[in-house]
């Protein structure tokens, strides 16, 4: 079945199912935290490195979600972080078919430390496009959700972005100054001079340093934040709480739901890597499996620009200050 075969009515039904599923799965995450607080132990296994971990909770919650989806929508494809990680391929498996792209526990490291930024993340895609997103962070009881043409919401009652009246604020005229930058240290910790870790840090410092410094690259952002959950980073961009999210290295299940929500809220998502000419290169839509993401919050018009113009200006200002990241991906 192709996208065009799904009517808005069918999408609405899938959306309601996904919201309910997200809430139930999030409750399971919370139950496990409560059990730990009461003294239960927790098994943690390493995947690719000591910072790439999986708990029994990730696996149990993925099975719970997968079983519910297979029962309700047996013709849909399912891609989950934990079942994917057990496979041999690192290829990009999403095609035009209706596909659920799920991270049962995004922010696993946070979860193991009981740092509240963990959540379940459920994306639904058709024709490669994330059309439904549900993110539920149970410790904070925050539910982010969206469906194409239905808006993006916090707890089903506050429309995103949060500041809408009298209009969505434009991006600052001197962005990235006055912006909150969200970024992640990631899991590639190789301490090699030109590795991703060093390239990220150089980019963070460029964006943070005072204006006029670093050969003109100093961006003097208002603040730098790392939530430790890519999908929540995107939800916070959709809220308008973060202005910019720049990240490389995470995977489609880390971003599918967050991108759906951000796009529906009016945000922009493109590639993290600066093109040869950042001033004039076209600003293309992000490729979901590219592992390279630059997200800009929803923006309204100012006296001299449309919201989209201010988003594109901000993209170019970020591109001028960041290093190219080296994350590869067969088939994306
Ligand atoms: C991780 C988080 C983190 C990002 C990593 C992801 P996980 O997901 O989203 O913010 O920097 O790249 O792998 O492992 O907690 O599901």
From TrEMBL:
Keyword Phosphoprotein on entry: no
A Pfam family assignment: Inositol_P
Residues binding Mg(2+), per UniProt: 81, 103, 105-106, 254
Organism domain of life: Eukaryota
Cofactor(s) in the UniProt record: Mg(2+)
Catalytic activity: a myo-inositol phosphate + H2O = myo-inositol + phosphate
Transmembrane segments: none
Keywords of this entry: Hydrolase, Magnesium, Metal-binding, Quinate metabolism
Pathway: Polyol metabolism; myo-inositol biosynthesis; myo-inositol from D-glucose 6-phosphate: step 2/2
GO biological process, one term: phosphatidylinositol phosphate biosynthetic process
Class of the enzyme per the UniProt entry, highest EC level: hydrolase
Annotated GO MF terms: inositol monophosphate 1-phosphatase activity; metal ion binding
Its EC number(s): 3.1.3.25
Gene3D superfamilies from the UniProt entry: 3.40.190.80, Fructose-1,6-Bisphosphatase, subunit A, domain 1
Family: Belongs to the inositol monophosphatase superfamily.
Protein name listed in UniProt: Inositol-1-monophosphatase
């Amino acid at each position: 079945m192709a996208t065009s075969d799904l009517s808005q009515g069918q999408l609405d039904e899938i959306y309601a199912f996904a919201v309910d599923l997200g809430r139930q799965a999030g409750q399971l995450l919370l139950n496990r935290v409560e059990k730990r607080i009461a003294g239960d132990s927790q098994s943690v296994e390493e995947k690719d490195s000591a910072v790439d971990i999986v708990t029994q909770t990730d696996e149990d919650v993925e099975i719970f979600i997968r079983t519910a989806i297979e029962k309700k929508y047996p013709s849909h494809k399912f891609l989950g972080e934990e079942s994917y990680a057990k496979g041999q391929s690192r290829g990009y498996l999403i095609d035009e078919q209706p596909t659920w792209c799920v991270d049962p526990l995004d922010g696993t490291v946070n979860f193991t430390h009981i740092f509240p930024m963990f959540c379940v993340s459920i994306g639904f895609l058709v024709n490669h496009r994330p059309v439904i997103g549900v993110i539920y962070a149970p410790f904070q009881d925050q539910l982010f959700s969206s469906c194409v043409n239905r808006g993006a919401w916090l707890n089903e009652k506050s429309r995103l972005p949060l500041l809408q009246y009298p209009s969505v604020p434009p991006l600052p005229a001197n962005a990235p100054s006055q912006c909150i930058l969200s970024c992640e240290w990631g899991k590639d910790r190789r301490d090699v001079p030109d590795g991703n870790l060093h390239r990220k840090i150089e980019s963070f410092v460029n964006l943070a340093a005072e204006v006029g410094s670093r050969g003109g690259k100093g961006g003097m952002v208002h603040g730098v934040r790392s939530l430790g959950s890519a999908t929540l980073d995107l939800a916070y961009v959709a809220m308008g709480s973060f202005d910019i999210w720049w990240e490389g290295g995470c995977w489609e299940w880390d971003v599918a739901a967050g991108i759906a929500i951000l796009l529906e809220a009016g945000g922009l998502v493109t590639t993290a890597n600066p093109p040869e000419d950042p001033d004039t290169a076209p600003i293309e839509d992000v490729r979901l499996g590219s592992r390279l993401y630059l997200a800009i919050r929803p923006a309204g018009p100012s006296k001299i620009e449309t919201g989209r113009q201010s988003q594109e200006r901000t993209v170019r200002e970020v591109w001028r200050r960041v290093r190219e990241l080296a994350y590869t991906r067969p088939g994306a």
